[in-house]
Design goal:
- The termini are far apart.
- This protein is an alpha/beta fold.
- The strands form two sheets. The protein has a seven-stranded mixed sheet. A five-stranded mixed sheet has the order 8-9-10-11-12, with helices on one face.
- The protein is 31% helix and 22% strand.
- It contains seven helices and twelve strands.
- The chain has two domains: 213 residues, Metallo-beta-lactamase, Chain A; 64 residues, no CATH class.
Length: 286
């Protein structure tokens, strides 16, 4: 894993979210979990080599963040926002969360398949501890300040660790890779990015892409606004939603995050749809 501070680790070079670990005097706190099973098992062993695993925090309900919850069942409590259950373990398309995970492992982590439990034995390990707005967790000498930062998902949270001057923001930020708006509430997303900018941190650990500083939050806001502007210009030209989908793309701006090249068209299409709907709602209820 990449060491960000003496006690904070993450991994930005695997398919799926950037899983994180904060080591405290009482044990490890995981923030999300790896979607690549062989890597997930390695990180669990890495944490156990240094002590107990105290908590797993889910920043959102999407499969690449919560697939690994099974391996924490009976090990430690899982913490998340109370709205996470609405979309927990759901995936786009026709497959359910289990079949989707098996498909990912088959294509990108075949060695992990031997460690994948059967459907009957796989535990969809939902959070046991939830909160509505904010929550403060003390583990040893570390403070974990959990903030509800909706936008990418209704249940999105940021995990601020002031002692390490680090914040884990999940998919509120995609750094140097394609931005997914497929599940976003754009107005809330922009507000959450502005809130995160107020935190006193040296490092922002995104859901996808390399670790960044707070200045990248301004770039993320600007990129979202570019999407909105492009769709707004299309609407002003008289384009329908389908015409906007056909004509507007930022596929040349960034690659898709590792291992998901086949999702480029989906990202461009759903980003246009979200921006189009957002602008139409603004016109109806300015």
């Amino acid at each position: 894993m990449e060491r960000i501070t003496p006690n904070v680790f993450t991994e930005t070079k695997i398919r799926g979210c950037n899983p994180g670990i904060v080591f405290t005097s009482e044990g490890a706190v995981f923030i999300d979990s790896a979607q690549i099973l062989t890597y997930l098992l390695d990180t669990i062993e890495f944490a156990r080599s240094r002590g107990d695993i105290k908590y797993l925090i889910n920043t959102e309900p999407h499969i690449d963040h919560i697939f690994g919850n099974h391996w924490f069942a009976g090990v430690c409590p899982v913490i998340a926002h109370e709205k996470i259950n609405k979309d927990f373990f759901l995936v786009p398309g026709t497959m359910d969360g289990y079949d989707y995970s098996v498909d990912v492992l088959t294509r990108q982590d075949p060695k992990g398949l031997e460690h994948m439990p059967s459907r009957e034995k796989y535990i969809v390990n939902r959070p046991q501890i939830t909160f509505s707005e904010n929550m403060t967790l003390k583990v040893g000498e570390h403070t974990f300040m959990l903030y509800h930062t909706p936008g990418h998902s209704d249940s999105q949270i940021a995990v601020y660790v002031p002692e390490e001057r680090v914040v884990f923001v999940g998919d509120t930020v995609f750094s140097d890779c394609q931005l997914w708006l497929h599940s976003a509430n754009i107005e809330e997303l922009l507000k959450s990015l502005e809130f995160i900018h107020t935190l006193d941190v040296d490092y922002v650990i995104p859901g996808h892409g390399p670790v960044v500083t707070k200045s990248y939050l301004e770039e993320q806001i600007a990129f979202i606004q570019e999407w909105i502007k492009a769709v707004d210009q299309g609407i002003k030209k008289g384009w329908s939603k389908e015409e906007c989908i056909k004509e507007i793309s930022f596929a040349d701006r960034f690659p898709v995050d590792i291992g998901q090249d086949e999702m480029m068209d989906y990202i461009q299409r759903t980003n246009v749809v979200k921006c189009f709907d957002y602008l139409e709602a603004q016109r109806i209820h300015p």
